[in-house]
């Protein structure tokens, strides 16, 4: 499973890159607003070291304006994926952008049928928001399983990008469910490396070894 970082803070993405977890990046209007920076400046910095897709989300909600925005974002780098909302105008824009060869990511997906419509219209990626579903008492990971089954039934090539991930358990569950990609909040990416038994095991190995040097360093 590929892992993206869900952040508009470039230093957070760089830190996750050191852990080998940056196969791409996702951003959204809320994440960008939290930085107080210009969207373009953030993306310019990210394109310097991120080779995989960087999702840039449109603000417009009508077809013509979405296209205008999307075509501009597409010029911001060779690896831009334009993020469009799962709406009627979003699907029209998706059809046009797919025909133009633009990479796309359909956001705010909460049902199998929405994922099916996005795939039929040629989406590169579809983003089911699993954490927000869980927040409402539904089964976010179950949605990933269901979309996987439907896409496999009909050989859709759209990638399932598990979004709105809240914790490391979500990550392992969406990996088991067959998500192609999980986009991780930076704190979740960090936590994936941790286990208290790793820390206590290392501490006891080093205690037992004492203050002798490593034979390799003598
Ligand atoms: C992903 O593309 C979304 O921007 C993100 O995962 C949403 O997460 P949230 O529900 O924690 O805001």
Give the key terms.
globular, EC 2.2.1.2, TIM Barrel, binds erythose-4-phosphate, 8 strands, alpha/beta, eight-stranded parallel β-barrel
Description:
- With 218 residues, the chain is α/β, with parallel strands linked by helices.
- It has one domain (2-217): Aldolase class I (TIM Barrel).
- The protein contains 11 helices and 8 strands.
- The protein has helices spanning 10-18, 29-33, 39-47, 63-73, 88-99, 112-120, 130-135, 140-153, 168-176, 186-191, 196-209; strands at residues 2-6, 24-26, 54-57, 80-85, 103-109, 125-128, 159-162, 181-184.
- The protein has an 8-stranded parallel beta barrel with strand order 1-2-3-4-5-6-7-8, surrounded by 7 helices.
- Strand 3 (54-57), helix 4 (63-73) and strand 4 form a beta-alpha-beta unit.
- The longest helix has 14 residues, at 140-153.
- The radius of gyration is 20 Å and the shape is globular.
- The N and C termini lie far apart (41 Å).
- Residues 6, 26, 28, 107, 127, 129, 131-132, 163-164, 183 line the site of erythose-4-phosphate.
- Belongs to the transaldolase family. Type 3B subfamily.
- Residues 191-200, 209-218 have a biased composition (Basic and acidic residues).
- Keywords: Cytoplasm, Schiff base, Transferase.
- InterPro entries: Aldolase_TIM (IPR013785), TAL/FSA (IPR001585), Transaldolase_3B/F6P_aldolase (IPR004731), Transaldolase_AS (IPR018225), TSA/FSA_arc/bac (IPR033919).
């Amino acid at each position: 499973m590929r892992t993206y970082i869900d952040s508009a803070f470039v230093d957070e993405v760089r830190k996750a890159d050191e852990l080998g977890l940056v196969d791409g990046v996702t951003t959204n209007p809320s994440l960008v607003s939290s930085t107080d920076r210009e969207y373009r400046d953030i993306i310019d910095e990210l394109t310097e070291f991120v080779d995989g897709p960087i999702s840039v989300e449109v603000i417009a909600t009508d077809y013509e304006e979405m296209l205008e925005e999307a075509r501009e974002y597409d010029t911001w780098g060779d690896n831009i994926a334009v993020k469009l909302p799962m709406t009627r105008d979003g699907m029209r824009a998706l059809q046009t952008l797919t025909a133009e060869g633009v990479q796309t990511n359909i956001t705010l997906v909460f049902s199998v049928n929405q994922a099916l419509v996005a795939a039929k219209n040629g989406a590169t990626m579809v983003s089911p928001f699993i954490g927000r579903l869980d927040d409402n008492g539904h089964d976010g990971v179950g949605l990933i399983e269901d979309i996987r089954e439907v896409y496999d039934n009909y050989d859709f090539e759209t990638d399932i990008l598990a979004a709105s991930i809240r914790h490391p358990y979500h990550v392992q569950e969406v990996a088991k469910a067959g998500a192609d990609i999980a986009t991780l909040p930076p704190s979740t990416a960090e936590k994936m490396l941790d286990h208290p038994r790793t820390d206590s095991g290392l501490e006891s190995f080093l205690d037992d070894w004492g203050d002798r040097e490593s034979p390799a360093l003598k």
